[in-house]
Amino acid sequence: MRNIVLEIAYDGSRFAGLQVQKNAVTIQGVVESALEKILKRFVRIKYAGRTDAGVHALGQVVSFSAENAMTAEQFKRALNSLLPLDVRVLGATEAAPEFHPRYSAKKRWYRYIISTSEVQVPFFRNYAFWLRRSIDIDLLNNYAVNIIGVHDFTSFARREPDQKPFREIFECRIRRRGEFVVLDIVANSFLRKMVRAIVGTFLELEKNSEPPERVTEILQAASRSEAGKTVSPGGLYLVKVFY
Amino acid sequence: MRNIVLEIAYDGSRFAGLQVQKNAVTIQGVVESALEKILKRFVRIKYAGRTDAGVHALGQVVSFSAENAMTAEQFKRALNSLLPLDVRVLGATEAAPEFHPRYSAKKRWYRYIISTSEVQVPFFRNYAFWLRRSIDIDLLNNYAVNIIGVHDFTSFARREPDQKPFREIFECRIRRRGEFVVLDIVANSFLRKMVRAIVGTFLELEKNSEPPERVTEILQAASRSEAGKTVSPGGLYLVKVFY
């Protein structure tokens, strides 16, 4: 059995998320459906990160088992001819049997984009969170420093049953790019809705000019109600998974 | 009667074009419907350029007559609270009664965007024309030189009844921007589907390494069948109207 690994990009706007669900269009669903046409049998795919409804990916990683003689490059072409245009295979390789997109991953890089234009730009309505005010980038970066390292992120996530709340943040940086504010965050892995809760919390604290120590207090409280709102999914991108 | 002028931007992806049609969602339709809610009566809007289905605008200009005491700025806010997020009012002013968005316009600037990425980028599927090959920008600019000035553009347009085929092109320039090729064209006005026919023709000529004189021959033939295909609407943007 061969282990085929795909790097895929998708516009999450019309999807109910990555993970397959009954009566909903999902990225996993359209990929498995295209694969079934190629392989003439159903295969389940594995994936690196379960992105939520409306969240995008520039470099999601998925894998599947195949017995036939097609090369990875042939899978890429065949899938791109069958997949809807909002899901694209950027690259394909064959990996060792033990490679697993989620369990083998060492780091994940997510990006969150905020648009600060005076009027919401129609083209970015599904691709950035619109916040019509000036943002203190330096203060956001001071907050970011306080989440670097290993922490209990209970305050910043929707906990799943049996999931440990500790995660290690390697990098978190915010910068201005024209009318956009861009947050890049790299961690070993993320809890559910964690990036969007971090962004929502940082923006609430920044609006009220709260000191960076508040971030540490919120982490230590280990209570979701201590932190801010989960911002909208359209601004979030899974950029890259590192192995 | 006051003459209110709006600058609007829209994502044309889901619209059957600017102009109102029965049983189809149009930009004119949603703007007039929002205005009717504000003014409590139906008003017809006038517009600078009738963009086709799938074509976008960064600076379309529309106007309407109003009797009430709302300021232009209040119209902008009220409309943005009622319009769908893919149509936005960027600015509003009050103009002299004789101002007409189409007849008062002196120049129109359109942009056409081609994406040359190896795999089609899912985020740009409705916002750029995907052409997976290298493009000779210098050759395209040599073609562009030959359409500058006043010409009969019958070969490059879908003629409307009673429409004169002469148009004056002030500027036409092509440049590379990363993985994109961007064509900017400014004219006094355009015939229907003219920009997309020009782009389609230039790309066909360039693919076959035809000399710039072919453009002049095609213009002189004054026959639509002499020129190339009309490329897809998603790459086209009405950037700005000059008065």
Notable features of this structure?
2 domains; 243 residues; alpha+beta; homodimer; globular; ten-stranded mixed sheet; 5 helices; Alpha-Beta Plaits
Task: Walk me through what this model shows.
The first copy, chain A, is of the alpha+beta class and 243 residues long. The first copy, chain A, folds into two domains: 94 residues, Alpha-Beta Plaits; 136 residues, Alpha-Beta Plaits. Chain A has five helices and ten strands; from the N terminus they run E-H-E-E-H-E-E-E-H-E-E-E-H-H-E. In chain A, strands 1, 2, 3, 4, 5, 6, 7, 8, 9 and 10 form a ten-stranded mixed sheet that branches. In chain A, a hairpin with a 2-residue loop joins strand 8 and strand 9. In chain A, helix 1 packs across helix 2. The longest helix of chain A has 14 residues. Chain A is globular and about 60 Å long. The two termini of chain A are 22 Å apart. The mean pLDDT of chain A is 96. Chains A and B meet through strand 4 of A and strand 4 of B.
Class by SSE composition of chain A:
alpha+beta
DSSP helix fraction of chain A: 10-25%
Coarse morphology of chain A = globular
| CATH-defined fold name of the largest domain in chain A | Alpha-Beta Plaits
Query: Can you name the CATH architecture of the largest domain in chain A?
Result: 2-Layer Sandwich
The largest chain-to-chain contact, stated as pair and per-chain residue counts, equals:
A-B, 18 and 18 residues
Question: What is the CATH class designation of the largest domain in chain A?
Answer: Alpha Beta
Along the chain, the helix and strand elements of chain A come as: EHEEHEEEHEEEHHE
Q: State the domain count of chain A.
A: 2
What is the CATH homology-level superfamily of the largest domain in chain A? Pseudouridine synthase I, catalytic domain, C-terminal subdomain
Characterize the main sheet of chain A.
10 strands, mixed
Low-confidence stretches of chain A: none
Supply Rg of chain A: 19 Å
**Mean pLDDT across every amino acid position of chain A:** 96
Work out the strand percent of chain A.
25-35%
Give the beta-strand count of chain A.
Answer: 10
Q: What is the rounded distance between the termini of chain A?
A: 22 Å
Question: In DSSP terms, counting alpha (H) and pi (I) runs of 4 or more, how many helices of chain A?
Answer: 5
